[in-house]
Design a protein that fits this description.
Blueprint (H helix, E strand, L loop, with lengths): L2 E5 L53 H6 L3 E5 L8 H5 L5 E4 L9 H5 L6 E4 L9 H7 L2 E4 L5 H16 L2 H9 L5 H5 L9 E5 L3 H10 L5 E5 L6 H7 L1 E4 L2 H7 L2 E4 L13 H4 L6 E5 L8 H10 L2 E6 L30 H20 L8 E4 L2 E2 L1 H6 L13 H6 L1
Parallel strand pairs: 1-2, 1-3, 3-4, 4-5, 6-7, 6-9, 7-8, 9-10, 10-11
Antiparallel strand pairs: 5-12, 12-13
Helix pairs in contact: 5-8
The structure holds NADPH dihydro-nicotinamide-adenine-dinucleotide phosphate (NDP).
The site of NADPH dihydro-nicotinamide-adenine-dinucleotide phosphate has 33 residues, from helix 5, helix 8 and helix 14.
Family: Belongs to the D-isomer specific 2-hydroxyacid dehydrogenase family. FDH subfamily.
EC number: 1.17.1.9
Protein name: Formate dehydrogenase
Length: 401
């Protein structure tokens, strides 16, 4: 029987909810490309309830314990004496969400001799040292597509909030003001602007589709071209370099995975390609950007605004400069963990566990690493190597909280 360590974010500071804002959520059974939503044999949770925090347990306890397994749930994941570290010695499976990632570095993997699987309850397994997982023959899987559309909605929301200067205007209202000129001195329409996505995968393409009705000019940069029919339908301009995309666009959004090839793709040098006053929205991964180069670009006016929900490390230390830089619209990492998304990735995690324990194949579209190499979706989306460097900084958040 296996020990499963499940790392989840903390419950709300005012307690686990006793009731919810809505009574139900739409039941999504298929994604836009035809992939089916997760199909576990059963679920032991109510869709629409908070599952991603410690008390929610991704709805997994009944299933795991009734099959004789041991489930340890904790939010204590950073620093050498964390509960996660204490539990690793006999853990067979570690599960975490990118919003509150259990950084599975080579050192941590070495502390877990029985570890056989690392599951990302969500999308994006860059918090695991994939090279170390490959070297140890550990399976890495994620719940592909579970929250791609959720993130795309967040991207569009943040683009509009930056361009229209929503957050400062909202703040004037709560301060009791009616300062129209202060609000509109940085407010524009998105209509007619040029908007580009770095990567047109599940999220990037969804963003392009959602933006089409705003009558903007759409651009994308991707290693592979979208089908001609899609390019025509959305009137897309394809770019083969970041330089070309950045020079053409007023708004740029990053939607590619973080791996050694994409780390710090936005830096002082590449920012030179951007038009003055570009808005940058990054809900993909914080480390795609050089942290301090973003601050400098906002201070100089090269960027008119920066928003997103991804930081490095996570949780971001209190003194992380993105908390206080000018003209930002950052949220904590929440775009892919709406209550709607949680229901899908909790079910997807259970589906992966059911396959694992019954010796059946995990869906190819969920696999990142298997049998010592990149596999399934991972072979397409990731490069071998490690992107967890510096993750020990996440312990700084813990020290003051
Ligand atoms: P997909 O795998 O569908 O899309 C990724 C795309 O990135 C693919 O089209 C791939 O291109 C492209 N790509 C990879 N490397 C490069 C590169 N160097 N330059 C340009 N394009 C590149 O994944 P999703 O769209 O579902 O998710 C994308 C990322 O978003 C995830 O990896 C994750 O990091 C992040 N994410 C964030 C969430 C949040 O809550 N904020 C939630 C979910 C995901 P190709 O296929 O042509 O090789």
């Amino acid at each position: 029987m296996a020990k499963i360590v499940l790392v989840l974010y903390d419950d709300p500071v005012d307690g686990y909810p006793k009731s919810y804002a809505r009574d139900d959520i739409p039941n999504i059974t298929k994604y836009p490309d035809g992939q089916t939503a997760p199909t576990p044999s059963a679920i032991d949770f109510t869709p629409g309830e908070l599952l991603g925090s410690v008390s929610g347990e991704l709805g997994l306890r009944k299933y795991l314990e009734s099959n004789g397994h041991t489930l340890v749930v904790t939010s204590d994941k950073d620093g050498a004496n964390s509960k996660l570290d204490q539990e690793l010695h006999d853990a067979e499976i570690v599960i975490s969400q990118p919003f509150w990632p259990a950084y599975m570095t080579a050192e941590r993997i070495a502390k877990a001799p029985k570890l056989k699987a690392i599951i990302t309850a969500g999308i994006g397994s860059d918090h695991t040292d994939l090279q170390a997982a490959m070297d140890r023959g550990i399976t890495v899987a994620e719940v592909t597509y579970c929250n791609s559309n959720s993130v795309a909605e967040h991207v569009v929301m943040q683009m509009l909030s930056l361009v229209r200067n929503y957050i400062p205007s909202y703040n004037w209202v709560t301060k009791g003001g009616w300062n129209i000129a202060d609000c509109v001195a940085r407010s524009y329409d998105i209509e007619g602007m040029h908007v580009g996505t770095v990567a047109a995968g599940r999220i990037g393409l969804r963003v392009l589709r959602l933006l089409k009705p705003f009558d903007v000019n759409l651009h994308y940069l991707d290693r592979h071209r979208l089908p001609e029919s899609v390019e025509k339908e959305l009137n897309l301009t394809h770019h083969t370099s970041l330089e070309s995309l950045a020079k053409a666009c007023d708004i740029v959004t990053l939607n590619c995975p973080l791996h050694p090839e994409t780390e710090h793709m936005i830096n002082d040098e590449t920012l030179k390609f951007f038009k003055r006053g570009t808005y940058l929205v990054n809900t993909a991964r914080g480390k795609l950007c050089d942290r301090d180069a973003i601050v400098r670009a906002l201070e100089s006016g090269k960027l008119a605004g920066y928003a997103g929900d991804v930081w490095f490390p996570q949780p971001a230390p209190q003194d992380h400069p993105w908390r206080t830089m000018p003209h930002h619209g950052m949220t904590p990492h929440i775009s892919g963990t709406s209550l709607s998304a949680q229901a899908r990735y909790a079910a997807g995690t259970r589906e992966i566990l059911e396959a694992y324990f019954s010796g059946k194949p995990i869906r190819d579209e969920y696999l990142v690493v298997q049998g010592g190499k990149l596999a399934g979706v991972g072979a397409h989306s990731y490069s071998a190597g490690n992107a967890t460097g510096g993750s020990e900084e996440a312990a700084k958040f813990k020290k003051v909280n």
